[in-house]
Design brief:
Length: 390
């Protein structure tokens, strides 16, 4: 990646601008680049932690696995939720302690369970009998929590039924874990990513509390409630401030679960999204016919190079350009690849300056989560999203 800095325009000595802002507004990149601010990640960690209180934060590494992000989070005391051996190795290499890493994917290779156990990871997720057998064989005596399927339709990016099991099976799995010599410590769930209001957690926590109660009645001494992710980022629609949101979630947890020994939360999006912006450019602005009401604007970044969460137009990123003062008009926004699925927003077009043309800079805000980690390695020959950490 080549990069040149231009002097930030219009900035006097009295208008301090962060390195992040200066880079996002003025640095020249020869490919779409995610710029991520470590200081903003740290600020957001503290804001969430202030609301979460006694709950441990296990950052969901999948949201943004830049080594520098992990290192900064290690430095401020975060723990980590890893989805694979690769993420465990990444966290360890950045100084995380193995007992502060949970292996949260319910689908794990046996060899990776053995690896995790060998390096001192002690906490594993499961939602199936076969997975428990695997853990018992390759990580004997480990702590396990059982993931429940919960209703996620309130979330903007709901997670599918791929993960978790129902109540009855969860109770059976606790018994099985105990019989296998594992420590069945508790439950986990995920309310769905980008759950914009803390109040939306209520019905899920009610359900979880009923299941927790049933397990306790059945003789299990549960000590861990893993409340997962779901903490929102600002994409243009109102959200609560991170500390207020997290505190409200914890108030709801405490009201139902009392002083459960250990609560952990796994924010991904809510921790890193607002710390990042993608700098890209317009490749083409055109119309399909003279009568077309909408222009098509094709960007240098698309669904396969980092903006996968535009699927179904679920996540609507905020886009700014240096021409934002010009008259605006609706346009269909698309990526650069030769793939007709590479359309970002069409059902609900985006308002962009009518003067926008090829070569113009575009900045896509608050996209530090699930962009670099979703980017393909080289679909259609376009390079993966570059990352610059400031
Ligand atoms: C197990 C687990 N925990 C946490 C997260 C992070 O969720 P979010 O980005 O909504 O905070 C995910 C996301 O997929 C997940 O699978």
């Amino acid at each position: 990646m080549t990069m040149q800095f231009a002097a930030p325009q219009g900035l006097g000595a009295s208008a301090p601008v962060s390195t992040f802002d200066a880079v996002v507004e003025t640095a020249m990149f020869d490919q779409p680049t995610l710029v991520i601010s470590l200081d903003r990640v740290e600020q957001q960690y503290h804001a969430l932690k202030a609301g979460l209180g006694r709950a441990d934060i296990h950052y969901a590494v999948k949201a943004n696995p830049a080594p520098e992000v992990i290192a900064r989070l290690v430095a401020v005391g975060s723990h980590f939720d890893a989805a694979s051996r690769g993420e465990i190795e990444l966290c360890l290499a950045q100084g995380a302690r193995p007992y502060e890493i949970s292996f949260g994917n319910t689908i794990k290779r046996a060899a990776d369970v053995a690896y995790a156990h060998s390096v001192g990871v002690t906490l594993f997720a499961a939602d199936a009998a076969e997975e428990l057998d695997k853990i018992a064989q390759h990580a004997p005596g480990a702590q396990v929590y059982i993931r429940l399927i919960v209703e996620t339709s309130q979330a903007d990016w709901p997670l599918s039924r791929k993960f978790g099991c129902d109540r009855d099976m969860a109770l059976e799995l606790l018994d099985r874990a105990r019989d296998l010599g594992l420590q069945a410590v508790g439950f986990s769930f995920h309310v769905g990513s980008q759950t914009r209001r803390a109040a939306m957690w209520g019905p899920t926590l009610d359900e979880m509390h009923k299941i927790w109660h049933a397990a306790t009645e059945a003789g299990h001494n549960l000590t861990l409630l893993n409340i997962g992710g779901g903490f929102p980022a600002f994409y243009g629609q109102d959200i609560e401030a991170p500390t207020d949101y997290a505190a409200s979630v914890m108030d709801q947890v405490s009201a139902r679960f009392g002083e459960v020994a250990r609560v952990m939360a796994e924010p991904g999006r809510g921790l890193v999204a607002e710390a990042g912006a993608i700098v890209a450019e317009v490749m083409l602005a055109s119309r399909k016919s003279a009568r077309d009401l909408h222009r098509w604007v094709y960007l240098s970044i698309g669904r396969f190079s980092g903006l996968a969460e535009t699927d179904g137009e679920a996540i609507r990123y905020q886009i700014s350009t240096p021409r934002d003062g010009d008259p605006m008009g609706p346009c269909v926004l698309a990526g650069p690849s030769c793939d007709s699925a590479d359309v970002l927003y069409e059902k609900q077009p985006v308002l962009l300056p009518l003067s926008l043309s090829a070569g113009d800079r575009v900045v896509i805000r608050n996209c530090g989560a699930y962009t670099s980690s979703y980017s393909s390695v080289g679909f259609n020959g376009f390079p993966p999203l570059a990352v610059m950490v400031v």
